[in-house]
Write a structure and sequence with these properties.
There is one protein chain. It is built from 15 helices and seven strands. The protein has about 375 residues and is an alpha+beta fold. The protein folds into three domains: about 120 residues, Endonuclease Iii, domain 2; about 100 residues, Endonuclease III, domain 1, CATH 1.10.340.30; about 120 residues, Alpha-Beta Complex (Nucleoside Triphosphate Pyrophosphohydrolase), CATH 3.90.79.10. Strands 1, 2, 3, 4, 5, 6 and 7 form a seven-stranded mixed beta sheet that branches. A hairpin with a 2-residue loop joins strand 1 and strand 2. It is elongated. The N and C termini lie far apart (about 60 Å). The N terminus is likely disordered. The protein binds iron/sulfur cluster. Iron/sulfur cluster binds next to helix 10 and helix 13.
């Protein structure tokens, strides 16, 4: 394979100190070198096997992409298999009951994805006569689909020449070319998208997109890239300057907010009191026991006298702390306490909208992951 001149002076304007470039000027040979090396690795060394990789059905590709948003492939895999088995065609998903779909999604988090997915399936079924859109513009017009997902569907299903830019692609390109433009800035998105389009193998856009994402996921990993095994190692800027840990750059620091949830699990005659979350908040449409959310931690005594609990006239001594869990979401950490409270009569002040459900029937309802974990750890619920 030809090895064109990739010296920094030719590839990018020299900045002082010689560190990182802002504008990539590639000639055809340099672009081809990157693309050919990557594609050669893909056909000879890329052993990453996932069931949606050879898929051509746009519906199933779309399903896999929605499931994989903010989810690792290994975690998303069983969900993809469950969904394609339960709903092999868009019509099957579109005509399914909400409750049933949410139950299948249970444990994957980010329930907005599930809601948008259902809405989109129904839109395609009813308004588009069940036909998945065929152009990138019409794919991107679907709810819950951004630029990345649209490019993935367009290239994988139809072979259209659109380059994907996801976290893996940002990482490979920023390290290889030494670009420090923040990937979460408008300028960064524009710059990386233009570069990705330039590098795309237009004769095999699906193969190229798969190759660069797989390289990012399996070789150019966030914490410890395996540069020795990388097909791009001889010209990689980050490798040469030992800058793996500095690239890619993000401008915004993630602010993680802590929330404190106190669940009181009212148990009566082998039934649990639950209600649906309806507010504009996380876990919308999922079920939960009686909840008190407080801005700071509460002791059991403070919980018993909380304004939401006081009207229920509970006996503090019968409020048993039975579990405590931490759940990390993208922007928040949720500390959840579970209290069991056995009663003979329904407290008159229990809020409206709830219902008593037999413990044996709990598995028919969709709950947030932390609640499921608590149920599973406390076998007597089943
Ligand atoms: S050489 Fe290392 S840092 Fe550079 S692209 Fe390959 S794995 Fe990433």
């Amino acid at each position: 394979m030809d090895s064109p001149d990739f010296s920094e002076e030719k590839m990018r304007p020299v900045v002082q100190p010689v560190y990182i470039a802002r504008a990539i000027r590639m000639n055809k040979a340099q672009q081809q070198y990157f693309t050919r090396r990557l594609m050669h690795w893909h056909t000879t060394h890329n052993g990453r096997s996932l069931p949606w990789k050879e898929e051509k059905d746009p519906y199933k590709i779309w399903l896999s992409e929605i499931i994989l948003q903010q989810t690792r492939a290994q975690q998303g895999l069983p969900y993809y298999l469950k969904f394609t088995e339960a709903y092999p065609r868009v019509k099957d998903l579109a005509t399914a009951e909400d409750e049933e779909v949410f139950r299948l999604w249970q444990g994957l988090g980010y329930y907005n994805r599930c809601r948008n997915m259902l809405g989109t399936a129904r839109y395609i079924h009813h308004d588009l006569e069940g036909k998945f859109p065929r152009t990138i513009e019409s794919i991107q017009a679907l709810k819950g689909i951004g630029a990345y997902t649209a490019a993935a569907i367009a290239s994988f299903a139809y072979g259209l020449p659109h380059a994907v830019v996801d976290g893996n692609v940002y990482r490979v390109l920023s390290r290889y070319f030494g670009i420090d433009t923040p990937i979460d800035s408008t300028a960064g998105k524009k710059e990386f998208t233009a570069l990705a389009d330039q590098l795309l193998d237009k004769t095999d856009s699906a193969g190229y997109n798969q190759a660069i994402m797989d390289l990012g996921a399996t070789v150019c990993k966030p914490a410890s890239p395996d540069c020795l095994a990388c097909p791009l190692n001889d010209k990689c800027f980050a490798r040469k300057h030992e800058l793996w840990n500095d690239l890619p750059v993000k401008s915004k620091k993630l602010i993680v907010k802590k929330r404190h949830f106190y669940y009181i699990l009212f148990l009566k005659d082998n039934q649990l009191w639950i209600r649906k979350r309806t507010g504009d908040d996380i876990w919308q449409n999922l079920y939960e026991p009686f909840l008190v959310e407080h801005k700071a931690g509460l002791t059991t005594a403070e919980l018993a006298t909380h304004e939401l609990v006081k009207p229920l006239k509970l006996k503090k001594a019968d409020l048993q702390l039975s579990g405590r869990l931490f759940q990390r979401l993208t922007h928040r950490v949720i500390e959840t306490h579970f209290y069991l409270y056995r009663i003979k009569n329904t407290p008159a002040a229990l809020p409206t909208g709830g219902k008593w459900v037999s413990l044996k029937e709990l598995n028919k309802y969709a709950f947030p992951k932390s609640i499921i974990s608590f149920f599973e750890k406390n076998a007597y619920f089943y």
